[in-house]
Amino acid sequence: xxSPSSRRLKTARFDIYRNMVLRTARKDxxxxxxxxxDYPFDTNYELFSAGLVLGFLRDxxxxxxxxxxxxxxxQVSRVGGSSDNEYRQGIEFVYKLIELEHSGEDPEDTEPWExxxxxxxxGVEAIDQDISLKDxxxxxAFIDEADQNWEDRLEDILVE
Amino acid sequence: MKVQKATIKNxxxxxxxxxxxxxxxxxxxxxxxxxxxxxxxxxxFTAMRFCLYGFEGGNAEKSEKRRQAINRKAAVxxxxxxxxxxxxxxxxxxxxxxxxxxxxxxxDPDERDWDSCxxxxxKPSVSEGKEIVIDQAPNExxxxxxxxxxxxxxxxxxxxxxxxxxxxxxxxxGSYNDSEADVREAIETVLGIREIQNAIQDLREExxxxxxxxxxxxxxxxxxxxxxxxxISSVKSKLRAKKTEKDSxxxxxxxxxxxxxxxxxxxxxxxxxADKQDRVNEIKEEIEGSGQDDGLQAKLxxxxxxRRELHSRLGPLMIGIGAKHAIENYDVSIVSxxxxxxxxxxxxxxxxxxxxxxxxxxxxxEETLEQLQNDEMSTISExxxxxxxxxxxxxxxxxxxxxxxxxxxSEYVSxxxxxxxxxxxxxxxxxxxxxxxxxxxxxxxxxEEAESLRDTKETLDEEIGGLKATIETLEEDIDxxxxxxxxxxxxxxxxxxxxxxxxxFRTLMKLSDxxxxxxxxxxxxxxxxxxxxxxxxxxxxxEELTNKNDVYEGLTISEDYELDxxxxxxxxxxxEQNPSKGARQIIAYSFIAxxxxxxxxxxxxxxxxxxxxxxxxxxxxxxxxxxxxxxxxVILYQPGELEEEDIEQMGDNISSHLxxxxxxxxxxxxxxxxxxxxSELKRVLAK
Lengths: 160, 687
What we know:
The complex is a heterodimer of chains A (160) and B (687).
Chain A lengths: L7 E4 L2 H7 L1 H6 L16 H15 L12 E5 L10 H16 L10 H23 L4 H21 L1
Antiparallel strand pairs in A: 1-2
Chain B lengths: L1 E10 L2 E8 L8 E6 L5 H13 L5 H11 L2 H6 L3 E10 L2 E11 L10 E12 L3 E6 L7 H10 L11 E3 L15 H10 L2 H96 E2 L2 E2 L1 H17 L1 H16 L2 H15 L12 H14 L2 H20 L10 H38 L4 H99 L6 E6 L5 E5 L2 E4 H4 L3 H18 L6 E4 L7 H14 L3 E5 L6 H7 L3 E10 L2 E9 L3 H8 L2
Parallel strand pairs in B: 3-15, 3-16, 8-14, 14-15
Antiparallel strand pairs in B: 1-2, 1-4, 4-5, 5-6, 6-7, 9-10, 11-12, 12-13, 16-17
């Protein structure tokens, strides 16, 4: 099990982050931010947490992200600063579930954090696709999806 | 005129009322009236002329004659009036002329004098006795009225040939000097030539004057008509000028009103722009907010911020759902509590409920503790720890501990609804604002221009007011001129009759002249005819009367009515002939008889002293001719003029034979009475 300090948030779909995260967009010289509200997320970890939980619930990791990560965002232990933070706690909770789900497997085959990054990219892609498809950020649909899938997903992990 | 009766009253020697019957019959035209000298023959003769014509002469002469005409005895007795009345027939009418001299009583007859003198003309009326034809009524000059009346019967100028003195006829037998111009007038009058002449004169002068007066009067109207026509032209000219002026003012008014409407429209547009700009500002304020009030955009931004916060918390929310499931569905905490309790009980003899803890119970507790303390359970517990931490973070903010999805969704829906509503409101406002701004941009009127338009409109208002006042004044002027034109045209229409009258008078003047010319021709021919007729008749009478038929062949009458004697050796002027007085008297009788034969007048012939100094042959010839003179011949003779055989010669031609004589041997009270006896006749005839 990797320590929180060794686990870093990163993505192979930085392009999506650049379009959906305000601070990331602002750092890009090629993007002129006119309306902050055009960006659903303020920081990368906000999008990362959403992608992570969505990818985890769908259990469809973006394996092609492996070894294609563009850059590190931040260490998990630093998300939200020194105090407790819902994003960091949320990421830790999902990561804990991933660890539980793959606790009997060879860590070298299935490194939980790598899987978490792949889940996150898969979720980010799914959000991007949904927005592209609906031309809006339909968070209610994602919440409904979470509401419907969490119980089965927990049961798959904890009961088995 | 044929005199029926004469009544002489207190006139000259006639005292009181002296009636004289003068009726004659066609076979007996002669009335003889004889009397000695100073008995009143000439007074009777004078009385008849006085009755018809008054006295001749100037006022003083007339006055003296009137005074002397008053009977001396009557004056002393104060009988009040002297008068002569003639009753006569004329043109089948009966008239009575009464000429009166009023006087006061005097003690001395030489002091007698008249007070007033007047003439009355009456004619019988069936119902009321005698009707006054001419009286002293003040409405017309009675003298003129009477002259017109008597001239219609026997003009005074013609009376000399009816009332004459036989001894004074010589004046007609010779040349007329200037002082005897009246003779020619008398001759012309008696022949009716004077009437023609008068008619010609009337036509030339009086008629012409009359028509000229009418013409001048109407011509004056014509002048006025001309003036009126000129005034109408002037009024029409003024009217045209006023109408032109009004048309111009109307046109100006129309232009200015049109311009004002245009400006009002532009001002309305300017006003619309201002309103639109106000609305734009309102919209901006509504969207952007002002002062302390947030605008819609701020609210929208706030809501979008809230939504974005929810967006950004999508991950924690979704994880929170799982964390809650992990905690609620898996009781890992109980296991953890049990581990502590078992560890507490293993070292004790009694349970918490008081039961004994034996070895078997202690082994069970130890097995259970071992089971609880394996890795998996620890992991779940650790998981729940993370879940709990996450939920703790998640609910430390806005969400309650019992986070549920529906609450999050409800909040999100509410925010989304607010955002959509705000976006729609803003969009609508923006659309409206863009439309308004487009209108404003497209508007052609600026605020400055609007101010300028207002100034222009005020000026136009004043100008339009002035023009309306001007037009109103012009309309009043036009109405007045139209009324004046109508009045003038009505006057002219009424005066066109005057113009026709003027033409009529002009025609009458011309006719008057032409008529006068015609009458002059007629007169000339008539004069010649009458002259020839008179000449022929006078010659016949002369031949009848003269005692020298072997020498005289007749008389000739010149154009000036001067007599010449035609002898067997030719015409000889009477003066050159120088006949005897008797011969002259016979020539004059012949002439007068000739005139009377062709006179246009009907009147009695009254001859005073008819015989005079005629020789017996002439006298006999004349007496034989007397009955032929006229229908009524009054012969006033004096003793010695006529003798019994002369009376016998006249015989049945005498209607009555009268004597003028004194009453009671009073020389101031003569009277006239019919000769009834031989002795009376002898007395009258006696020299």
